[in-house]
Specification:
This protein is an alpha/beta fold. The protein is built from 25 helices and 17 strands. The chain has a 7-stranded parallel β-sheet. The relative contact order is 0.07. The chain binds one DNA strand through helix 2, helix 4, helix 7, helix 9 and strand 6.
Length: 575
DNA sequence: GCCGTTTTCGGCCCGACTGTTTTCAGTCG
């Protein structure tokens, strides 16, 4: 039985929760949580990392946890976890996710009222039995009631970054407009450019926190304010998105922005670094004794710690601090580096605009080239092109190019990879194209072995330029399909062909750690909008963000090249 | 449970808000 990173991470997370409910040493609990995080975001499968000795080289994993990983891999079980489950009713874990309930109160509920799961808690609340308990006032009771009431509705759903942006930017502008506010920035996972955002963290610079927070109450999109002090407030927007606002004085803005941007693991690492240098770092500044040595800007904070300024997208404690110390951070790609887009659809398949209109939109965005990659005719996609229709589109594009001087239209197709690894169009027509994008649109549930074989077979075909949206996930709808990404990368490098970073808000595929892994393997990338209308060329921004989180530079991306160099790279993929 | 340019033991990031607290524990980020 194959044990994957996520299985290990889930087991460690459960260990941490159950140990917390038992009242264990908080640092031991944190060690499990940190290990879960490290394993979860590992770019490669643990199975390929080899023996225990290699495992304990991972940060946060020592001899004991390496042994537990080995045990899970060998037996599929973890005796320590099973022992804990016998001692702590597993239903108690779910209680930890409710607001106001931490390990201490959960333990009280179990000890005093015999509550072992959410349903027990619901009944106890209805019967009014909580009021008698120490530490459970009417405030907590009402918060629990409402949390249980809309637990299903709200859930812990994270929102795709581009959707969150529609709420974050107006709120930022509103805060910026409050009298006395000199600056307002969105921090948190949004500023780090994560593919999904769980809540919005905003930082405000003002000498009067109280008045800024009073003004926040008036924000029209705010449903309720759940907590409000003089420097900090939390609330919920009408769409259910959680918002945290923090106010600091200008001389603290840099350290506060850094602190509020996170990630948590990055912050802890940076604060340890400050400590070992005899300093203390908090959101108000970097202090040596009582003297503030940095605070107003992030730049002075990093400089004071002998680090290059680290772009927010890299702040995940995945080696960026070590790289900044060596002044060896990558120079991350920017939107203006892109010269064209290699994945777009017209109304010949499922796009919404005709060829001419899409090309006009690309020109107005100053793209130098655009590949038209309509779907092949296959199940699932209405109106996909067969070889005859594709041949007619090829002629139409040749004619269009005659009339264009500032943009080159590249002839392409997005060809389905069939279940057996064959392509949905014959090589004879694919040879006439400039770029062949291949992708999986069916049979997402195959086993990892079969899915991997399927894609590897497709990559053996003579005409394959780019593997599009390589894991098939749809945020909030469909998980990535099971595939051995490592083997796909090896095949892509040897072949060669390129890997797409898809900028559709629902896809953002592949995820950041896989992007970084591709870069580490020397596989070149294509940043694509997958546009289905001219307006969707804006999705290139999403692809850039995803690329930056994977440490990608301009040199790692094929569509930063002028068209002549790009064509040379594409020819290398055709046999 | 992890980890080490003071340390193989004794630390482990740090502060705001809430509630029930007459001085602080619990939770959260």
């Amino acid at each position: 039985m194959a044990v994957h990173n996520e299985d290990v991470a889930a087991a460690f997370d459960e260990m941490a929760d159950l140990l917390a409910i038992q009242g264990e040493n908080p640092f031991r609990i944190r060690a499990y949580r940190r290990a879960a995080q490290v394993v979860r975001t590992l770019p490669r499968d643990l199975a390929e990392l080899g023996d225990e000795r290699r495992l304990d080289e991972l940060p946060g994993i020592g001899a004991d946890l390496a042994g537990k990983i080995a045990e899970l891999r060998a037996t599929g079980r973890l005796r320590a976890l099973e022992t804990l489950r016998r001692r702590v009713p597993p239903g108690l874990r779910a209680l930890l996710s409710l607001p106001g309930l931490g390990p201490v109160r959960v333990r009280t509920l179990k000890a005093r009222l015999g509550i072992r799961c959410i349903e027990d808690l619901d009944r106890a609340l209805s019967a009014g039995r909580l009021g008698s308990l120490k530490g459970f006032g009417s405030g907590i009771e009402s918060r629990l009631r409402s949390a249980l009431a809309d637990k299903v509705a709200r859930g812990a759903q994270r929102m795709s970054w581009p959707i969150a942006a529609e709420y974050a930017e107006p709120l930022r502008a509103y805060l910026q407009s409050i009298p006395g506010v000199t600056r307002a920035e969105i921090a948190g996972s949004y500023r780090r450019g994560r593919d999904t955002v769980g809540d919005l963290d905003l930082l405000v610079s003002s000498r009067s926190g109280a008045s800024a927070i009073r003004a926040l109450r008036q924000y029209e999109d705010l449903r309720e304010l759940t907590a409000a002090g003089t420097t900090k407030a939390s609330g919920v927007l009408r769409n259910g998105l959680q918002v945290d606002v923090r106010v600091v004085a200008p001389q603290s803005f840099g350290t506060a922005l850094h602190y509020f941007t996170g990630s948590r693991d990055h912050n802890i690492h940076i604060r340890r670094r400050a400590q070992t240098r005899g300093c203390k770092l908090n959101e108000y500044g970097l202090f040596r004794g009582k003297r503030r040595v940095a605070g107003a800007t992030e730049e002075e904070l990093f400089a004071a710690l002998d680090l290059t300024w680290i772009p927010p997208e890299l702040r995940e404690d995945r080696g960026e601090i070590e790289a900044a110390e060596r002044h060896a951070l990558p120079e991350l790609i920017e939107r203006r580096d892109l010269q064209g887009d290699l994945h777009a659809h017209t109304d010949a398949s499922d796009g919404r605009e005709p060829l001419a209109k899409l090309v006009a939109a690309a020109r107005s965005r100053r793209l130098r080239y655009l590949a038209i990659t309509d779907h092949s005719k296959y199940l699932g996609v209405v109106g996909g092109l067969d070889a005859a229709r594709l041949a007619r589109q090829i002629d139409a594009i040749d004619a269009l190019n005659e009339k264009l001087s500032d943009l080159v239209v590249l002839k392409g197709a997005e060809v389905d990879i069939l279940e057996d690894g064959q392509l949905a169009l014959p090589d004879s027509i694919l040879r006439r194209l400039d770029v062949v994008v291949v992708s999986v649109h069916s049979q997402f549930g195959l086993s990892e072995a079969r899915q991997t074989t399927r894609v590897l077979r497709a990559l053996e075909r003579p005409c394959v330029s780019i593997l599009a949206h390589p894991t098939g996930r749809l945020l909030g709808e469909r998980p990535p399909y099971a595939i051995n990404f490592e083997r796909v990368l090896q095949a892509a490098r040897e072949r060669p062909c390129y890997l797409e970073i898809n900028g559709q808000p629902k896809r953002l595929d592949p995820e950041d750690v896989h992007v970084k892994s591709a870069r580490d393997h020397g596989v070149l990338l294509s940043i694509a909008s997958d546009a289905h209308s001219g307006a969707e060329f804006a999705f290139l921004d999403n692809g850039i963000r995803q690329a930056r989180r994977g440490w990608v530079t301009k040199e790692d991306v094929i569509n930063t090249r002028p068209v002549v160099e790009l064509r040379a790279l594409l020819r290398k993929t055709m046999r």
